[in-house]
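Reopening this ticket.

The earlier resolution said the output was attached, but the attachment link was broken on my side. Pasting everything inline this time so it's all in one place.
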Amino acid sequence: MKTTIPQIIMTALAMTACSQAAGATFGDDLAFLQKHTPLIVLSDPAGQAKVAVAPAWQGRVMTSSAGGDSGLSYGWINRDLIASGKLQPHINAFGGEDRFWLGPEGGQFSIFFAKGAKFELSDWFTPAAIDTMPYEVTQQSQSSATFRAGFSLTNFSGTRFEVGVDRAVNLLTPRETAAKLGVKVGKGVTLVAYETVNKITNIGELPWENKSGLLSVWILGMFNPSPATTIVVPIKSGPESKLGAKVTSDYFGTVPASRLVVKDEVIFFSGDGGFRSKIGINPLRSKAVLGSYDATGKVLTIVQFTQPEGVTDYVNALWKIQDQPFSGDAANSYNDGPPAPGVKPLGPFYELESSSPAAALAPRQSLTHIHRTFHLSGSEASLDAVAKSVLGVSLAEIQAALPKS
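Inline output:
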């Protein structure tokens, strides 16, 4: 499956976007964001692990910190677009570490193209329900916040969906982090970890069926790149005849060998924000985890998500009428860069993404997709055990994986 965003979209978006302020602290980004939108700030009792959430942007996690207000801000934020106060017609790429979206993007069951539309930029629109629509805050505490929304969506084939969304953002304690990752986090490691619990419900009177199209939960995290950042995706080994391709990587053309290394059990992908490229992992290959390591900042980021065993129907986002509309990816990673020579990139940033299976739901039935983000900072010695246990590779292997340019 290929999920393509035509070059013209990236060019148009890049004209109104800029990177987050280089090296911004959480306090810097918090102050900026609070000038433009209300925020909920979750924190641990010591005020060191912090997460900033924007109710007006679907309960989106904008950024986080493991070191309080003076700590590094991990989420990419589109300052130019936010500061302009102007909404764009096709998409409002505000940024953020964990944004709630729904798929599919393209194909005969797309919710981004209206019935009869052409699969091109002029007809592509992000639904307001996952772009600009505020979600209601239903509960809030020091360490969690919950949100709710209800709306209608109509896909390219004319199928109408009545959708209920319940979304929770929960800060995780160090003990919970160790339990979720299955590894003890050593002393000297600072961390911030949170999960979003994303439930969609069929609140209409008709079932959602394959023949008329299905929705899926799609969570995308946007992070600040660096020349020393490498993305790591563990995969299941095995023959392509049984598990399919190890990776789909030709979304925007060929990825140079210096930026993508594919092995039997792991994929290494550049997160430098210098070359626009994307990879996708099908559900038979996915291990429901991916991550990145910034060797300069000594920050290990891990994304973990729920993936039901044996389920293979995932929505296909290709921008055309599809022969296999449920042959999509369970996980993706995107590295931003100039869409054309001399054109500014959208960020730059890199993304770690997960998707739920296609949701074939009877009335009042729900599907829940959980997406967790962990940022750990410390010495290489202290982070190495986590990388080995969770990603299956050492920090030394990660740093040596991609050829030096």
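Reporter confirms the inline version is readable. The first strand starts at residue 40 and ends at 43. Confidence is low (pLDDT under 50) at residues 1-19.
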